[in-house]
Design goal:
It is a single chain. By secondary structure, this protein is an alpha/beta fold. It has a domain of 116 residues: Immunoglobulins (Immunoglobulin-like, Sandwich). 28% of the residues lie in helices and 20% in strands. The strands form seven sheets. Strands 10-15-14-13-11-12 form a six-stranded mixed sheet, with helices on both faces. The protein has a five-stranded mixed sheet with strand order 18-26-25-20-21. It has a four-stranded mixed sheet with strand order 8-7-5-16, with no helix packed on it. It is globular, with a radius of gyration of 26 Å. The N terminus is likely disordered. The structure holds alpha-D-glucopyranose (GLC).
């Protein structure tokens, strides 16, 4: 009986521990300093690096338990590659949610919150304290193998998604980990790529989403594999101490990416808090012990390195929660049915209808020929974020379950079958994965099949499942419809099938531009022509010891994504923020409550959205800002706010935005500060970066 009472009390304690307001950072650091005073030099050295690949280090004799961490921004990866499996108790299964970019494509911050909460609950269910996500590196190149794990090309869209993902996740007591800091925008020999980036681009494009996550209370950050302006991020004083902690004000735990650092003296003095995974087999140029013995590092240096990790674990109650080892919160399994709803809703709101000649939604009395190697597949991104999931539903399963229409599956249809088919749905895509870049073009066989289908049958719908843009120029014009479904998760094709047959009205928007040709991209010359893209590159171990590095010049500066294409007057195939619906909308009557904006006085911009179609639907009203007479080269427009609004047919709603003075700012590289110039600014309101329906002007007084 006693045991039961204790365990109930323990549960109540844990529950209240999560419910209590968080301890202030100052108090957490004071407690950390007191703990550090009790640690021996050996214990301090032991705590500079991870344990058993996925544990934060601890000191058992001092009641500092190790804390288990798990991967993946899109659900919990059950990791059987952890060396000592006896130290870990895995859940029976976890939910394979849609890929992170799908969250961005929903343009629905509230859904991002629910998504983060669901993954946070499954992290606790898995006996872990930290989820190694969300990933949020900006989509700079369509070929980057990890775009599926991130949130698209725009810093404001990514920021709204990150802050809500973080608050949702951390509301469960799971700590989020913002990654990968910073400018980790290619997977091509990712450990050896030196991102050469100017200060404006760092501040205006690559750090805002991290800043949003930090301001939302994110507990930890993971540094990136690449070098930034000449030093590996994981051991760079500029990146960690000056930028992350100084400029962005981060107070929590910083960890390296796995096998991403090479010099203990730099690591300890950079502001880094823990080297992961902790089996740095090359203690070079010297181990921490040798450096301390040689007085190249002091015990105080180690104290400084450990403080944020210990303070973070104290502040978020992790030492309490893990004091008896991996906590058992199996009862959270009961939340998994809810998580399936979040997963479905993310796929339903994140799938983007790019083209539709009226063939969609398909009526029940039609016959569907479902073709392509992806018809019976559940596509997902590969690498550390890969979540097994359960009860997987493929396009074929899903379509057959939502329609009485006859669905015939032919991975390799004959020409006669293609000609004869009433409607063809061609399921295609790419297998993106961490550690590789992937070509913008589809595999030859997949490309040829689509071209054949659209040539032989005008009623061909193309369903793309990928983590990035692909080359559609060879068949887009002939396709009757194009749907972009990302990696939709274990039950995401239920949502996509519901869209195809009209049970769901699509409302997704592109979180990145889809260019007509990769040579139009700002990253077109990133990878040497001859280089092979389609296999994992850059074996970490062979490169780890004396990695040769190569420079990636971010010569486009702040002109990433639509900012680039608009500045170069390059018309993309599909613009950022674009997505169709089964109904139609109109935006008009844009107003501003005051034509002068100041630091003290924001303005309110409003516009009337009307559903001019015949069925309920949701539209994303986007607000872009243009400085009319800039003193530095600025993008033609920059997204500063957006709102997703659902309306019944015929209904109208006034959509309002508070526009702040700081929304007009650019980063001044001379003063190293944000600056708002006096003068006129055009505020554009539209339903994509290329579909601007209304404009107003505001001015900043001298
Ligand atoms: C990987 C990834 C990182 C992941 C970590 C642990 O290489 O870059 O995102 O969280 O290592 O698997």
């Amino acid at each position: 009986m006693k045991k039961l009472i204790f365990s109930l009390c323990a549960f109540a304690l844990t529950a209240t521990a999560v419910a209590q307001p968080l301890m202030k950072w100052d108090e957490a650091y004071r407690k950390a300093d007191a703990v550090i005073k009790t640690l021996s030099l050996d214990e301090k050295i032991e705590m500079t690096h991870g344990h058993n690949k996925f544990f934060l280090p601890g000191a058992a004799e001092k009641d500092l338990p190790r804390v288990f961490m798990v991967d993946a921004s899109s659900g919990v990866r059950i990791n059987y590659s952890i060396p000592d499996q006896n130290e870990v108790r895995h859940p029976l299964r976890t939910t394979q949610f849609p890929s992170t970019i799908t969250i961005a494509a929903t343009f629905n911050p509230e859904l991002a919150h629910q998504f983060g909460k669901a993954v946070g609950e499954e992290t606790r269910m898995s006996g872990a304290g930290i989820l190694l996500g969300p990933g949020m590196n900006i989509y700079r190149s369509s070929q980057c193998g990890r775009n599926f794990e991130y949130l698209g090309e725009d810093p404001v869209l990514a920021s709204r998604m990150v802050e809500n993902y973080v608050t949702g996740m951390q509301s469960t007591g799971t700590l989020a980990c913002l990654k990968h800091f910073l400018c980790n925008n290619t997977e091509f020999y990712r450990r050896n790529s030196n991102s050469v980036v100017d200060e404006r681009a760092i501040m205006e494009i690559y750090t805002p989403a991290f800043k949003a996550g930090i301001d939302a209370g994110a507990a930890s950050v993971m540094t990136a594999y690449n070098l930034l302006n000449g030093e590996w991020c994981g051991q760079s004083k500029y990146v960690i101490t000056d930028l992350l902690r100084g400029e962005l004000g981060f107070k929590g735990l910083v960890m390296t990416d796995w096998h991403s650092v090479y010099d203990w003296k730099k690591i300890v003095l950079s502001g880094q808090n823990v080297e992961m995974p902790g089996d740095m087999q090359f203690d070079f140029p010297a181990s921490v012990r040798e450096l301390v013995d040689r007085k190249e590092l002091s015990e105080k240096d180690l104290d400084k390195m450990l403080r944020p990790m210990i303070a973070t674990c104290i502040r978020f109650g992790l030492y309490e929660r893990f004091k008896n080892g991996q906590p058992n919160e199996d009862h959270l399994v009961s939340k998994m049915p809810e998580h399936l709803k979040v997963s479905y809703q993310t796929a339903a709101e994140g799938t983007v209808l790019l083209k539709n000649n009226g063939i969609l939604p398909i009526a029940d009395n039609r016959q569907i020929l479902l073709i392509g190697p992806w018809a019976n597949k559940l596509p997902q991104g590969g690498g550390s974020s890969k979540v097994e999931g359960y009860n997987h539903i493929t396009p074929a399963d899903a379509l057959r379950s939502v329609t009485r229409a006859k669905v015939t599956v032919r991975e390799k249809p004959t020409m006669a079958e293609l000609r004869k088919a009433d409607i063809v749905v061609c399921a295609t895509g790419t297998s993106d994965r961490e550690g590789t870049e992937r070509p913008f073009a589809l595999l030859v066989a997949d490309e040829e099949l689509i071209r054949l289908a659209v040539d032989l049958n005008p009623n061909t719908i193309v369903l793309v499942n990928s983590g990035s843009g692909i080359d559609m120029s060879g068949w887009n014009d002939k396709a009757a419809a194009v749907l972009y479904g990302w990696y939709p998760g274990q039950n995401g094709f239920e949502a996509i099938a519901d869209i195809i047959v009209g049970n769901v009205n699509p409302s997704g928007k592109l979180p990145m531009t889809i260019e007509r040709s990769f040579k139009d991209s700002p990253a077109a010359n990133l990878v040497p022509k001859a280089a092979s893209l389609s296999k994992a590159v850059g074996n970490p171990n062979e490169k780890l010891f004396h990695p040769a590095t190569y420079d990636v010049h971010y010569s486009e500066g702040v002109f990433v994504g639509y900012r680039w294409y608009e500045s170069k007057n390059i018309k993309p195939l599909y613009p950022f923020g674009f997505g169709l619906s089964y109904t139609s909308f109109a935006l008009n009557d844009a107003k501003v409550d005051n034509s002068v904006i100041s630091a003290k006085k924001p303005v309110t911009v409003s516009v009337t959205l009307t559903n001019t179609g015949k069925r309920e639907g949701a539209e994303v009203v986007q607000l872009y800002v243009t400085e009319n007479n800039p003193t530095v080269a600025r993008p033609k427009k920059e997204l500063k706010a957006f709102k997703k609004v659902k309306l019944a047919p015929g209904a109208s709603e006034v959509v309002s935005f508070d526009l702040l003075h700081k929304d007009l700012a650019f980063w001044n590289e001379n003063s190293h500060k944000w600056q708002v110039n006096p003068g006129e600014y055009t505020i554009s309101l539209g339903t994509s970066s290329a579909d601007i329906d209304a404009q107003v002007t505001v001015s900043v007084a001298k």
